Amino acid sequence: MQHTIREEFRGIAVFIGALWVVWLADLILPIKLTDWGVNPRSIGGLIGIPLMPFLHAGFGHLLSNTIPLAILLTILAGSRSSGWQVVIELVLLGGGLLWCFGRSSATHVGASGLIYGLIGFLIVAGFLEKRLVPLGIAILVGFLYGTTLIFGVVPSFQQHISWDGHLFGAIAGAIVAYANTRQSAVQEPQSA
Predict the structure, then answer these.
(1) What residues contact 47, with CB distance under 8 A and at least 6 apart?
(2) Is residue 18 part of a domain?
(3) Domain of 92: which CATH number?
(4) N or C terminus: which one in the chain shows less Cβ crowding within 10 Å?
């Protein structure tokens, strides 16, 4: 599927705008929307799987997720992958893994699981596709976010950081990249 960053830009802006609208709604509404995050292994916590990327604990949390999310979604928009399909797969798989295996002592919120999923996806897909541009993108993403990726997935003494959400997001990214590149290889005609 061929698409351009320009074609995807509106969707990226709407997605990021939705994060900000939900944060503002959380400030105004009498209920606390962040209570709807992922609560591992609880039936009520299942709703948090699709909602988690839209819920943020505060202005600083939202701002720190906005910039890398905008960059990574733009890079994804320039790839051969169906960007929104990848985002949905990352949110559902990463959130599902977090729900199954994450710390049950926390309610997990924020788009950082998606960010780590995008990092993992772009790096793994770049190396698996064995083409120059995706490989260059993988190296660029690794350079820009490699340290964040490494240190963000290890257990933290800061209880408010969802390191396990980061870890399962990155794992989901690798799985989705592997599945998508295998599917692409099967669908591409073989030359004789």
Answers:
(1) 36
(2) yes
(3) 1.20.1540.10
(4) C
Q: Is residue 192 part of a domain?
A: no
Asked if residue 57 belongs to a domain, the reply is yes
Q: Which two tokens stand for residue 103?
A: 């710390």
pLDDT tens sequence for the chain (192 residues): 556 677 788 999 999 999 999 999 999 999 999 999 999 999 999 999 999 999 999 999 999 999 999 999 998 987 778 889 999 999 999 999 999 999 988 899 999 999 999 999 999 998 898 878 878 888 888 888 777 777 778 786 666 788 999 999 999 999 999 999 887 766 665 544
The two tokens of residue 59 are: 């202005």
User: Range of 98's domain?
Assistant: 5-187
Q: Write the CA distances from 157 to 1, 55, 67, 114, integer angstroms.
A: 43, 22, 25, 22
